């Protein structure tokens, strides 16, 4: 008979993003160190989360992280699979397992997917956008790769707190939306501040010859938002949820186009 | 020419926002914005009313367009949306196949 021992506190790290802690259990000491370093600022103190994953490290396979990602729901359980990891997660119990090599990229991808799946049910989402807090208000700067998320982040003035230069975390709270900092870094390779603030506006980034803010139609706002929202599972119910979330968001939060030149003066018109 | 019956797919998400109807395919995430005429056809796609009747009884009445012109436009619209699985098309009534009306 095999006895499964509970994970000890020493083997567990709680990563809290968007106010939602996720316990990573059964970590070996060296991998635990790597995780704590990567998610510095987001490591929680209380390993009593509703969500927990047992980590099972294995040798790296021939497959690379660039392999196609597969996310599907089987019998109520989510299966997440890529070349460098194989995970399953039961949203009812909150428990799951991740079998992966000792790579931070694998755990990073799993966390993004799990947060996306949870947020979708709550009217929120992860979106390709830099975000920052200024004057108690959060501003999102959304765009595809190359649109200027890193540039606008790099140009942020000292009174702006950078939440992320790559993936913004948006949660619905009543009739408002709140942006949270994330450790999901882009080219700046800098973990965001673990802070939050109500979303005041979204700027769709576009490089130009001058700094100006332009209106966009609601339709364009929703379409651009949907293009940038992280979405992993081709599940019709989830597509419907994210579509409705994007529409709700666009009806409550001002969305503009920000045409900008890459110098600090662009921040003069934000805030 | 055979009659066409059209129905909204269930595998879509749709919503009227800012006076415009937005429709997205759940299968391939294709996004459409429908103008007023297209929205009227979309709303009327109940699987039971022939397309020609939708055109004659709704489009021509509400938008003051001639029937031949409206029918051609409606056929093009239906063809395009059916290619993305957003509208279902048949030469027989599509009973119980139309998706729910969009959220307002």
Number of contiguous helices of chain A: 5
Could you say which overall geometry of chain B the principal axes of the C-alpha atoms support?
Answer: globular
The helicity of chain B comes to 25-40%
Which residues of chain A form runs of ≥5 with pLDDT under 50?
none
Strand count, sense and closure of the main sheet of chain B? Answer: 3 strands, antiparallel
How far is the first residue's CA from the last residue's CA of chain A?
A: 63 Å
Strand order of the largest sheet of chain B: 5-1-6
Biggest beta-sheet profile of chain A: 8 strands, mixed
Mean pLDDT of chain A: 90
Write up what this structure looks like.
The complex is a heterodimer of chains A (about 270) and B (about 100). With about 270 residues, chain A is of the alpha+beta class. Chain A has helices at about 30-40, 105-120, 150-155, 220-230, 235-250, and strands spanning about 15, 20-25, 45, 50-55, 70-75, 75-80, 85-90, 95-100, 125-135, 135-140, 160-165, 165-175, 175-180, 195-205, 210-215, 255-260. In chain A, the strands form two sheets. Chain A has an eight-stranded mixed sheet, with helices on one face. A five-stranded mixed beta barrel of chain A has the order 9-10-14-13-12. The longest helix of chain A is centred in the middle third of the chain and has 18 residues, at about 105-120. Chain A starts with 12 loop residues before the first strand and ends in an 11-residue tail after the last strand. With about 100 residues, chain B is of the alpha+beta class. Chain B has helices at about 35-45, 50-65, 65-85; strands spanning about 5-10, 10-15, 20-25, 30-35, 45-50, 85-90. Chain B has a three-stranded antiparallel sheet with strand order 5-1-6. Chain B has a three-stranded antiparallel sheet with strand order 2-3-4. In chain B, helix 1 runs antiparallel to helix 2 and helix 2 crosses helix 3 (about 65-85). The mean pLDDT of chain B is about 90.
């Amino acid at each position: 008979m095999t006895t499964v021992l509970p994970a000890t506190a020493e083997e567990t790290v709680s990563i809290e993003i968007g106010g939602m802690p996720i316990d990573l259990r059964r970590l070996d000491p060296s991998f635990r160190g790597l995780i704590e370093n990567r998610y510095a600022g987001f490591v929680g103190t209380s390993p009593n989360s509703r969500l927990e994953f047992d980590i099972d490290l294995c040798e790296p396979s021939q497959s690379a992280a660039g392999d196609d990602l597969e996310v599907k729901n089987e019998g109520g359980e989510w299966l997440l699979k890529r070349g460098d990891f194989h995970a399953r997660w039961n949203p009812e119990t909150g428990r799951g397992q991740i079998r992966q090599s000792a790579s931070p990229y694998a755990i990073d991808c799993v966390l993004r997917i799990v947060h996306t799946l949870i947020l979708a049910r709550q009217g929120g989402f992860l979106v390709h956008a830099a975000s920052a807090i200024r004057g108690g208000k959060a501003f999102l700067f959304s765009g595809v790769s190359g649109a200027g998320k890193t540039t606008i982040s790099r140009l942020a003035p000292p009174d702006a707190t950078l939440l992320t230069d790559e993936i913004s975390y948006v949660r619905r709270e009543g009739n408002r939306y709140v942006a949270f900092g994330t450790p999901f870094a882009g080219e700046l390779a800098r973990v965001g501040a673990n802070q939050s603030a109500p979303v005041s506006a979204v700027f769709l980034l576009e490089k130009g010859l001058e700094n100006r803010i332009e209106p966009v139609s609601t339709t364009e706002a929703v379409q651009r938002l949907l293009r940038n929202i992280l979405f992993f599972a081709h599940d019709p119910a989830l597509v419907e949820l994210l579509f409705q979330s994007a529409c709700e968001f666009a009806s409550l939060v001002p969305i503009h186009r920000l045409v900008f030149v890459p110098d600090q003066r662009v921040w003069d018109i934000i805030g | 020419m055979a009659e066409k019956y059209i129905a909204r797919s269930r595998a879509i998400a749709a919503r009227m926002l800012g006076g415009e109807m937005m429709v997205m395919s759940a299968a391939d995430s294709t996004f459409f914005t429908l103008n007023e005429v297209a929205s009227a056809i979309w709303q009327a796609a109940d699987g039971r009313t022939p397309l020609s009747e939708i055109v004659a009884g709704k489009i021509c009445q509400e938008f003051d367009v001639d029937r031949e012109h409206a029918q051609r436009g409606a056929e093009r619209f239906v063809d395009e949306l059916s290619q993305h699985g957003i509208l279902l098309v048949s030469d027989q009534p599509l009973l119980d196949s139309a998706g729910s009306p969009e959220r307002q």
